[in-house]
Amino acid sequence: MQLSRALLAAALMTLPLALPAEARNITASTSEDTDMARAQHTEWTRLLEKYVHASDDGVNRVDYGALKSNPADMAALDAYIAGFAGMDLSGSDNAAFAAWANLYNAVTVRYIAQKYPIGSIRDGHIFGGPWKRIIVTAGGRDVSLDDIEHRILRPTFNDPRVHYAINCAAFSCPNLMHKAWEPATLDRDIDAAARAYVNNPRGVTVTDRGLVVSSIYDWFLADFGGSKQSVIDHLLKYADTGLASQIRAKPKIRSHDYDWSLNDTQ
């Protein structure tokens, strides 16, 4: 694994979080809020539909090169991100979750497109990555990608599915989807994202010696219940029937793995 788990674990220990697995704190949005959110994220959906491509291995890949070479679409992405600057993002409902997750993903895609060609989002960083340095104005304040994930999404929503909603442009990250997150379909879509990841070898691979699971379940163990058994319970919740049977037959996590190479179509 390319990233030092010890270094990452030390960094994560500084975060004032201890999130229970499967906790829910997302409340329903009004129909008016939902309609507004759908209109707001329409342009992001258009860009995702155009540049995110499904692959036979189950990994959605992004054509960063094509996006970079299209000035109109880069400008549209800039405009979409700028729209968050004065938006009220103080809520804890589906609309707020969708907005923060969409913003995180859009800013990440823009960062990669601007830097492209690169081999990994971590290129140029000896330790860690650029997440604390990538700053955007949202909700009337400047926040980093690190803030969005660790100071906003995780503690506000207490939902381990946050990790399936945001994409770090890495091969082993849960997929960037083909459409924006929207309040009306958030639970259904985020569950589908969780199933897609868990049932892909990036999420869990069953070997003769036990389970090799994504390092996400190690780095953010507290979010998934705080123990290896709670991680297994989480995997079983989303595993298809065949995979669930294999997990139950080898119910021990033996190791973790993560590939930081770019989720690029090239």
What's this entry about, in short?
The chain has 266 residues and is mostly helical. 45% of the residues lie in helices and 10% in strands.
Explain this structure.
The protein is built from 12 helices and 7 strands. The strands form 3 sheets. It has a 3-stranded mixed beta sheet. A two-stranded antiparallel ribbon has the order 1-2. The protein has a two-stranded antiparallel sheet with strand order 3-4. It is mainly α and 266 residues long. Strand 5 and strand 6 form a beta hairpin.
Essential attributes:
266 residues, mainly alpha, three-stranded mixed sheet, two-stranded antiparallel sheet, 12 helices
Helix and strand layout, with pairings?
Blueprint: H1 5-12, H2 31-40, H3 42-51, E1 52-53, E2 61-62, H4 64-68, H5 71-82, H6 94-115, E3 135-138, E4 141-144, H7 145-157, H8 162-165, H9 186-198, E5 204-207, E6 210-214, H10 216-219, H11 228-238, H12 241-249, E7 253-257
Parallel strand pairs: 6-7
Antiparallel strand pairs: 1-2, 3-4, 5-6
Helix pairs in contact: 5-6, 6-7, 11-12
Q: Structural class from helices and strands?
A: mainly alpha
Proportion of helical residues: 40-55%
**Continuous helix count:** 12
Low-confidence stretches: 1-31
Silhouette: globular
Portion in beta strands: 5-15%
